[in-house]
């Protein structure tokens, strides 16, 4: 379980949010909402341990994530609104390297299967610099298929995706929740997961 207590975060001299408390349980999904500049991305990055909060505690399975360190990172997957892929590498190479950095041993056969499911059949070995924006986004999102992480933190996961890809991401999220995974995300596009109650968190 992810528990957040009295969290506060600032950007420079501007306080983005304060007194933020919530809990996310296995099998639950939460959408973070708010106007541009309200601190959605800052909140997600703080939950991942990439930014230090001004105040408050973030706990995973009852322990402060600052004390858990690598144990927490092994159970958390963050996908930012930027793809974080290397242009000169192929989709296959990008996926296998990102998996390795996350501590996941991914052989070529499993990586190719993931890329094909995500809609990149025939493009697995092409340099990502020749792919479209939507295809590059799919390369990044293929990490969802090969991760063992319980907590997915997704910042604008639907960016540049067509209708078919959006439906696939919704399907992957539903499968993850059915395995008692957890998801917290932001999006400017509608995201619906059948049979799942969507929890909301508004920043203002």
What is this entry, summarized?
This protein is an alpha/beta fold. Helix content is 32%, strand content 26%.
Provide an overview of this structure:
- The protein is an alpha/beta fold and 204 residues long.
- The chain contains 8 helices and 9 strands.
- The protein has helices at 40-47, 65-68, 70-73, 91-101, 108-117, 133-141, 143-146, 163-178, and strands at 2-11, 14-24, 29-33, 55-60, 63-64, 76-79, 151-155, 182-186, 198-202.
- The strands form 2 sheets. It has a 5-stranded parallel sheet with strand order 6-7-8-3-9, with helices on both faces.
- The protein is globular.
- The model has no long low-confidence stretch (mean pLDDT 91).
Helix content: 25-40%
Approximate shape: globular
Q: Which radius of gyration do the C-alpha atoms yield?
A: 17 Å
In total, the number of strands is 9
Kindly report the spatial arrangement of strands forming the biggest sheet.
Answer: 6-7-8-3-9
Order of helices and strands: EEEHEEHHEHHHHEHEE
Count of separate DSSP helical elements: 8
The largest sheet is: 5 strands, parallel
- Strand portion: 25-35%
Uncertain spans: none
């Amino acid at each position: 379980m992810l528990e957040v207590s009295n969290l506060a975060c600032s950007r420079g001299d501007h306080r983005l949010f304060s007194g933020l408390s919530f809990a996310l349980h296995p099998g639950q999904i939460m959408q973070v909402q708010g106007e541009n500049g309200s601190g959605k991305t800052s909140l997600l990055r703080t939950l991942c341990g990439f930014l230090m909060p001004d105040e408050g505690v973030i706990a995973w399975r009852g322990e402060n994530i600052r004390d858990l360190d690598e144990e927490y990172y092994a159970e958390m997957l963050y996908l930012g609104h930027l793809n974080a892929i290397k242009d000169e590498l192929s989709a296959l190479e990008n996926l296998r390297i990102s998996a390795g950095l996350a501590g996941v041993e991914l052989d070529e056969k499993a990586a190719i299967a993931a890329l094909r499911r995500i809609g990149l059949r025939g493009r697995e070995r092409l340099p990502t610099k020749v792919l479209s924006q939507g295809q590059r986004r799919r390369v990044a999102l293929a990490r969802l298929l090969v991760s063992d992480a319980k907590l997915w933190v997704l910042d604008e996961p639907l960016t540049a995706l067509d209708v078919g890809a959006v439906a696939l991401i919704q399907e992957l999220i539903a499968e993850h929740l059915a395995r008692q995974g957890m998801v917290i995300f932001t999006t400017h596009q509608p995201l619906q997961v059948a049979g799942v109650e969507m929890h909301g968190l508004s920043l203002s």
